[in-house]
Design brief:
The chain is α+β, with helices and mostly antiparallel strands. The chain has two domains: 1-38, Single Sheet (N-terminal domain of TfIIb); 40-137, GMP Synthetase, Chain A, domain 3. Helices cover 32% and strands 38% of the residues. InterPro entries: KH_dom-like_a/b (IPR015946), OsmC/Ohr_fam (IPR003718), OsmC/Ohrsf (IPR036102).
Length: 139
């Protein structure tokens, strides 16, 4: 896996991933940015959220559960001093489907958190990680 980051101007950067996708990043105005794109640490959270959502959906689909929707909200706290690593990350899942079983959803989240989601497992090296979920019955 690889990624190349190029500085554009001010505090704006563009990343080109190994798969050929472009991703913009920018700094906050107080840091010389123009607030045109996400901050790098926001992208780390997005990556962890995407990683676990991918896992949970795949696990439930493979288990032949009728999952219709999945969203993950992440709330994070950072250290006050440099390096301002994440110290606490809360993953809040909302899953919708037909007759989704609570134990199946709990198992899928647990497998993601403990075995498959490398992004959240890495975050867990510096942060206290917690997981919550709700199930919404789909029409």
């Amino acid at each position: 896996m690889e990624c190349t980051i190029k500085w554009l101007d001010g505090m704006s950067f563009v990343a080109e991933t190994g798969s050929g996708h472009l991703l913009a990043m920018d700094g906050a105005p107080e840091a010389g940015g123009r607030n045109l794109a996400p901050r790098p640490m926001e992208l780390m959270l997005a990556g962890a959220g995407g990683c676990t959502a991918f896992d949970v959906v795949l696990i439930l689909k493979r288990g032949r559960h009728d999952i219709r929707g999945c969203s993950v909200r992440l709330e994070a706290e950072r250290a006050d001093t440099d390096p301002k690593v994440f110290t606490r990350v809360r993953f809040i899942y909302t899953l919708s489907g037909r007759k989704l079983k609570r134990d199946a959803v709990e198992r899928a989240i647990h497998l993601s958190a403990e075995k498959y989601c490398s992004a959240s497992i890495m975050l867990g090296k510096t942060a206290e990680i917690s997981h919550e979920f709700e199930i919404v019955e789909a029409d």
